[in-house]
Amino acid sequence: MEEREEGKVEEMMEGVASIALLPCGSISGHFIQLPHSICYGLCGTELACERECSRGEDYRLIKLTITDFNTKKEKATVVECKGHDAARFCSIDHAHGWDKDVTGMIEQRDGKKRISVSFECETLKAEKSAEDHIRKFMPKLAGLDAVVNIGKMTISGLDFGAEEEEETE
Predict the structure, then answer these.
(1) Widest pairwise Cα distance in the chain
(2) Sign of torsion, CA 148 152 157 160?
(3) Is the Cα dihedral 113, 16, 28, 50 positive or negative?
(4) What is the per-residue pLDDT across 85-117, written as a single tens digit (0 to 9) for each?
(5) Where does residue 25 fall: left (phi above 0), alpha (psi -120 to 50 degrees), or beta otherwise?
(6) Which of 54, 51, 142 is nearest to 103 (CA)?
(7) C-alpha distances in angstroms, 1 versus 11, 101, 134, 154, 156?
(8) Residue 66: predicted pLDDT
(9) Is the C-alpha dihedral spanning 26, 29, 35, 36 positive or negative?
């Protein structure tokens, strides 16, 4: 748990993620929060850069949507992705050269919590091993020639109940 400036304690969710990296640049997978084994959906699309990116050919931004399967609610954030087949995700503070809708998701405003995500691939599955994993855990992605990354993930600032509080005010 982290303490925020307002004195509120923010929950840090830790667990394991299984993520399929699709050839088109999109991602799809699951985050299992431990020790409670709560499963969240992960879906991401690569964001096109308006200007030439000078951070290397393996650098890209991904709009990551996290789905609470129990409530069917979704929250989106932007993460940077480094590494080709063995990906690393982390939150970013700014995105110069990107569209306003991208920078708007990154910048914290109106006192809203910002979602922070961290992931590092510990196990890389490719070819037959990846396809077997996908058939077992993500059957809708079978046959798409994806690689699978499995590793520890942490998420903070994720509050699906905050939408309800905002709507009642």
Answers:
(1) 52
(2) positive
(3) positive
(4) 899 998 876 555 545 555 455 555 545 667 899
(5) left
(6) 51
(7) 5, 30, 33, 11, 9
(8) 95
(9) positive
pLDDT of res. 4: 43
Cα(18)–Cα(136) distance, rounded to whole angstroms? 12
Residue 77: name the closest of 153, 165, 164, 169 by CA: 153
Alpha-helical regions (H) of the chain: 100-106, 127-137, 162-168
Q: Which tokens hold the place of 25?
A: 């640049």
Retrieve residue 5's tokens.
């400036």
CA distances from 72 to 10, 23, 39, 140 (A): 22, 27, 12, 19
pLDDT at 114: 79
As a whole number of angstroms, the distance between CA 72 and CA 76 comes to 13
DSSP state of 55: S
Query: What does the alpha-carbon distance between residue 51 and residue 61 come to, in Å, rounded to a whole number?
Result: 13
Using 50, 70 and 90 to split pLDDT, how confident is the model at 137? very high
Name the token pair of 74.
Answer: 């979704």
- For residue 129, give Cα distances in angstroms to 17, 83, 126, 139: 17, 20, 6, 14
